[in-house]
Hints:
The structure holds 2 protein chains of 2 kinds. Helix content of chain A is 29%, strand content 17%. In chain A, helix 8 (337-350) crosses helix 24 (710-720). Chain A is globular and about 90 Å long. The relative contact order of chain A is 0.12. In chain B, strands 2-3-1-4-5 form a 5-stranded mixed β-sheet, with helices on one face. The model of chain B has no long low-confidence stretch (mean pLDDT 93). The interface between A and B is medium-sized, with 19 and 16 residues. The site of one iron/sulfur cluster (SF4) has 14 residues of chain A, from helix 4.
Amino acid sequence: MADVTFTVDGTRITAPAGTLLIEACKSAGIEIPAFCYYPGLSLQAACRMCVVRIEKMPKLQTACTTPVAEGMVVQTETPEIAQARKATLQLLLGNHPLDCPVCDAGGECELQDMTFKYGAADSFYAEPKNHREEQQWSPVVFFDRPRCILCYRCVRMCGEGMDVFALGIQNRGASSVIAPNVPAVQSPDDLAHVDCEQCGMCIDACPVGALTSGTYRYKTRPWEMNHVATVCTHCGDGCKTTLGVRSTSDGSEIVRGDNRDKSGMNGDFLCNKGRYAFDFANSPDRITTPLVRQPDGTLKPVSWEAALDHAGKKLRELRDTRGGKSIGVVGSNRLTNEEAYLLQKFARSVLQTNNIDHHRTADYVAFAQALSDHPGRTASQLDTTTAKAVMIIGGDPTNENPLTAWNLRSDVRLNAARLHIVNHQQIKLTRQAKSFLQISDLSYGALAAFLAGDDSAVDGLVHPAADAAAFHTFRDTVRAEESLLVLIGNELRGEDLKRLLNFGVTLPNRKFALLSDYVNSRGAADMGLLPDMLPGYTPATSTNSFGETAIPMAAGLDMLEIFDAAAKGDLSALYVVGANPVLRYDIDPATLKNTFIVVQEMFLTETAAIADVVLPAANLYEKSGSVTNSFGDLQQVSKAGDRSGVRSDFEMIVRIADKMGANIKALVPFGKGTYADMGQTRGAQSGEADRHAVWLTANHLEPRTSPFDANAILDEIQRLVPGYDKMLRLQLLSGNAQHLEPAAQPSNATRRDLVLPSNDKLFTSGTLGRFSPMLEDLQVNDARLAAQKLVQIDNQAAAD
Amino acid sequence: MSEVANTIFSPELAARFDKLVTIYPLKRSALVPMLLYAQDEVGYISDAVVTEIAQRIGIYELDVRNVLSYYSMLRTRPAGKYNVQVCTNISCMLRGGYELLDHCKKQLGIGHKEVTPDGLFSLEEVECIGACCWAPAAQVNYDFHDNLTPGKMDEVFAMYREGRGKDVK
Ligand code: SF4
Ligand code: SF4
Ligand code: SF4
Ligand code: FES
Ligand code: FES
């Protein structure tokens, strides 16, 4: 829209016509107070805090609903306005309990700030205050009615933002009250509840302490915490979260998860896992001392030195006697990129094996191979906020990738984006969809073929509710879109996925993303936690070295083959870093009887329980490094929590390598002169130049001084891993996300499909979920509500 | 045939509702009339009424309750067979509305929004019922009685007790 120019407090401001005055002022650095206004939600104009004086208008006007106009002259702070705001505050404080000293919001409360600013400390209301007891609406949502200022933010957030509509407003006038969707009269326990997605967005939006969080309430004061911005450790969406931490006698405890700086790809959003499920880190079940299996068969706590020594010596002995080929390595989707890279480097160079894998939740190899030669075709999470049209094939973003779903809902609401969905279930996002076609869960391959132009494939798609014409119409509709963001669930893999992508890149303005389940599923694949792929999807069969490192030139055993080898008695050792394959792949522990097992874990999982050495590991909230989300957006993680007794996986890998007698400087290029540097004196071609040192110098980077410095490996990743060479350090260190495109060599080789969806939904999260008391409570709560069948948030058609 | 299987409403009302949801640009505009008609038939807005109306309009039960709780004329508990609504707004107040209300309370032995044990009468203090010219006024179900005095009110009660009153819903 055309720009208009107007004057606010004597300053001339220009903004696009149609901009709300409150937003235009914010952009110009002029703050107008607001309780009910919330960017991105519908306008309410309920609170009257934002009143300003606009020349030629009879009364004070609400800046939150007034669009700017050419020549407008506005005053935002005059005695008249201050008096009006003060009067508003006095009314709000009329029945406000002013229990700020014990209120969770104390110190972070918009009402407190405004009262402080406008000095509405005195009140003309002498009536006694009307007290109401606090209510618990769910394990995570608490409501303290007298503190509520009836701004309706929570109602709109839940309805418009979450598309859940679990909160309403009831009664009228002074007795108005925010009401949850399970009324007390219908509840078996005679208490009101919310039957909802438990995201806590309502709590986040509440300007006061009326809605409080089950994990955080009455725990601490905001100013007693330190705040660390990092990335959520749960799904593959890559939300930025700010963890509030506090010292304890044995480290640093995480007491709150929120997104106070709102600078991440998630903007305001966090789902319930990002917001509450940090509590696994504080679990009393965590292992905090190394354990070693004794001759009598029991696991006994030992010193770090003893445990590492035992693990290192034994691994070395087995490698030397039975060969690297007899060793298997299982990595994790929740390691940092640096750790994943280091782990595969350690496996390939020190253990001398390509038998390395991780729990794959999407086929990133096929994705990378199909798109690498087509720059600009991989989508970033940010694209979900602006795309004009989106096709979602498979997946269930609402439950599995909540941020993606949030962004898509916002995109539909704010930008009128068009959603086209094909799925084997009627996923919740179909409520926002322009078109939806249901297919059988076995016909995704046929769908890929059909979308790619194979008309005969439609036979595999039709069913009584959708005939061939419906599929043709759907295809015509998405093809007619000028630009299209294509989000693909894990249902499409291998050849089918490639077929769709190969066709997709022939059309202009198509971008693709493959959704996966864990925080660093993508990073694990990018970093080469795969038996046949080195970092950056370099085939393991194509080379006997990666950078300066000599590696075996052959594809290793994949996850299932590793355990098959164990069953045959061919697996001498298994090194598991942050994974629980015994449970995930239903491995019979007896088959691992004669395998020496080292496990780095937070908890005594089924895999850890049968290990010979268990090393207590730090989690993603307790270390620094980087992770890559499903979309390929790289972000930095920072250490927030701390637990005495645990070590980062990075450190443990390095120390085991050391105990094995490996050359640590070759494993982690730290310090100056990693290799004998004869090149500099005799000309670069003739000698063994220290390529890492040369690269560091060329990139103005300091040599890292510690072998535990993950940045030393990040330097190597940037230097050697295709795709990651484009990484911008400043972006990373500033806490900004940057999209990286994969750079794989195209290949037509057929690979075995080992994708195993985690099936985590809103209230589960792999091992972490099992040790998160809050997620457990939410599961119980959800089961109870489902049994009562009071409100069916999933099955209802969107209201008009 | 009703659009809703197993409707809790009479066939006539169900048919009326089937039509009602089609005549507004937004379906949910039918909500308030539906609540009123349902209340007339069922006597109050029961949970079952909330459920069926939500289903008919395609909105959440919470949405129905939000609106329902806004209007004091919609009730969620049964009233008496004869719901006595005494006005105490300005004109009636000036002409003895409060005395009339107090009299009713005493005669019926119940308070505001209460029902007599035999279920015959319920009492409500209401805002202006548009009969100010003949204040003080009271409304029994949909029937008006004006220019009232405590004595006249007793006659009104007697009339209904003896089944001579209009039973307009
Ligand atoms: S927790 Fe989320 S889904 Fe539940 S009421 Fe609050 S905003 Fe709605
Ligand atoms: S609970 Fe909070 S967000 Fe909701 S209306 Fe009250 S003050 Fe506003
Ligand atoms: S959407 Fe995913 S990344 Fe974001 S908070 Fe939830 S689990 Fe974490
Ligand atoms: S912010 Fe404008 S009226 Fe509330
Ligand atoms: S004031 Fe009682 S009828 Fe109008």
